[in-house]
Specification:
Bound molecules: L-homoserine
CATH topology of the largest domain: Ribosomal Protein S5, domain 2
Oligomer: single chain
Shape: globular
CATH architecture of the largest domain: 2-Layer Sandwich
Number of helices: 11
Radius of gyration: 18 Å
Largest sheet: 6 strands, mixed
Structural class: alpha+beta
């Protein structure tokens, strides 16, 4: 099956917004045999093979324990999503495994149940079971986590003209745990109002198919500035200037270090060049994906 890369936050929706991408993606094969336990094989980008340390393996262990599945499960992952890049690499494995086990053992789980299970895999990567990346990996398209307890996810199709650029710098693997540790514990109400206003604008743009509202909604006065101050992303100010000059939305993708750009499809290639130039101008090689919104995890 194919499990997509996802980008979380989109600036104003920290731990709330997620968007599935068409590229890059992971491919997974999950099979069952006699015996007990979980084994993992990995090709492509390297991730841990120990099931307790692999987001997919961790989800499999917890699900098998809960549903009393006494079989051997073999997980083969072709990792096309660079781990620690801010593109939901751990979420893709976790979502893929939750989806596969549901099918293989006829567990009858809903999409929301699958998000709940897959979010356990994020504990391995981030230390907390945040669900924004796994929601869009399961639902596809754009997702909003309305509430966490009980989990309520709303998913809908993004505008057709939504062009997406993701610039993935060749920097050391980013740590979601570290990127969360620099966040403020308390924030002024004025910053909260700013973010709520922009998040509402972005969600409205996604719902009515208006890319200009989505772009305008990609502003954050709480999380991104704290991460930029802590040096977790490179060239943050230059990216924000580019967003204004180019009339694009530009945000840190998830916990970084990748940067996400949103613009009308006709301008995507130019935005891609300009975003690449910002990293390369700082001596940081980078890979750029010019893509669009994608489907959730599915058989191929
Ligand atoms: N919402 C999470 C964060 C996404 O920004 O920490 C991490 O992939």
């Amino acid at each position: 099956m194919r499990s997509p890369a996802t980008t979380a936050n989109l600036a104003s929706g920290f731990d709330v917004f997620g968007l599935a991408l068409k590229e890059p993606y992971d491919l997974l094969e999950v099979s069952v045999s006699e015996g007990r336990g979980v084994s993992i094989e990995v090709s492509g980008y390297s991730v841990p093979k120990d099931p307790e340390k692999n987001s997919g393996g961790y989800v499999a262990l917890r699900m098998m324990d809960h549903f009393r599945i006494e079989r051997a499960v073999r997980i083969r992952i072709f990792k096309g999503i660079k781990p620690g890049s801010g593109l939901g690499s751990s979420a893709a494995s976790a979502a893929g495994v939750a989806y596969a086990l549901n099918k293989l053992f006829n567990l009858g789980l809903s999409k929301t149940d699958l998000v709940e299970w897959a979010s356990l895999g994020e504990v391995v990567a981030a230390g907390v079971p945040h669900a924004d990346n796994v929601s869009s990996a399961i639902f596809g398209g754009f997702t909003i986590i309305v509430s966490r307890k009980p989990l309520r996810v709303l998913g809908f199709k993004p505008p057709r003209d939504l062009g997406i650029v993701v610039a993935v710098p060749e920097l050391e693997k980013g740590s979601t745990r570290l990127a969360r540790s620099v966040l403020p514990k308390e924030v002024p109400l004025s910053d909260v109002s700013f973010n709520v206003g922009h998040a509402a604008l972005l969600a409205a743009g996604m719902a009515i198919g208006d890319v200009s509202l989505v772009k305008m909604g990609m502003e954050d006065s709480i999380v991104e500035p704290a991460r930029a101050r802590a040096g977790i992303v490179k060239g943050y100010e230059a990216f924000k200037r580019l967003a204004k000059e180019f009339d694009a939305g530009i945000a840190i993708s998830g916990a970084g270090p990748s940067m996400l750009g949103i613009v009308e499809l006709a301008w995507r290639a130019e935005l891609s060049k300009a975003m690449k130039a910002i990293f390369e101008g700082r001596g940081i090689p980078c890979q750029v994906f010019e893509t669009e919104a994608g489907e959730g995890v599915q058989e191929v």
